[in-house]
Amino acid sequence: MKKLSVEQIAQEEKLRAPKPTTGAPRERYVKVTFLIATEGTKTEPNYLKALKKELEATNRFNIDISIEGKGKATKALVNKIIRQIENCHQEYDQVWAVFDKDEFDDFNEAISLAKSKKINCAWSNESFELWLLLHFKDVSAPTGRKQLFEELEQAIRNALHKDDPEAIFNLSKSNDKIYELVTNLGSEADAIRRAAALKSNYNANIKPSSQNPCTHMDALIHELRHPETIPVRI
Fold first, then answer.
1. Where are the alpha helices (DSSP H) in 37-117?
2. Which of 7, 35, 126, 141 has its CA 20 to 30 A from that of 28?
3. 29 vs 20, 61, 123, 126, 147, CA distance in Å?
4. Which residues fall within 8 angstroms of residue 195, CB to CB, at 6 or more apart?
5. Is the pLDDT of residue 25 over 60?
6. Which DSSP helix (H) or strand (E) runs through 19?
């Protein structure tokens, strides 16, 4: 075997040494888990599942989001979430209930019950369509579900007509493209700003059932888009 000089040995060690990485240090990923249960079984789950798909595609964070359309109204929805948490072995960093005011008379009670069990509520008064409509325009007057639906349909139609005046559009609650429609044709940033402005109109003494128009969907969207702000369970 050929004997190496001290200089040759040093050169061999230098070649075999691991090369330093360049660029910014790798981000430490932390897994954050959400359970989101919705009153509706079509529009809300369709919207949230599309958002989930978008978030997963960014690979910014390790987020586990379970979205379930329960088909239960207000307090019944909250009670179903409570039973699910108590009877399963899954731990969640955040639990959310998504529901509307509609004609139900247990709206305030459902929100109070959820709060007592540390369940977050992304409620809308009067309906989820309010949150979607805020992507396109301000809403300041009390507005019923039917009117919100019609105004949302018209807002999307108007946006489509900017590129295609002949475009025909009919909004359906089973439309699985609702997230893409409102985020591409409207503005999520505007919706968040408008939702915050609506909430500022009411003080703590005004019951949620009397806060029309109002939505707390912006709070859920913020948590989903910024999971780094959520305390990590130990």
1. 43-58, 74-87, 107-116
2. 35
3. 21, 6, 30, 38, 44
4. 131, 134, 214, 215, 216, 217, 218
5. no
6. none
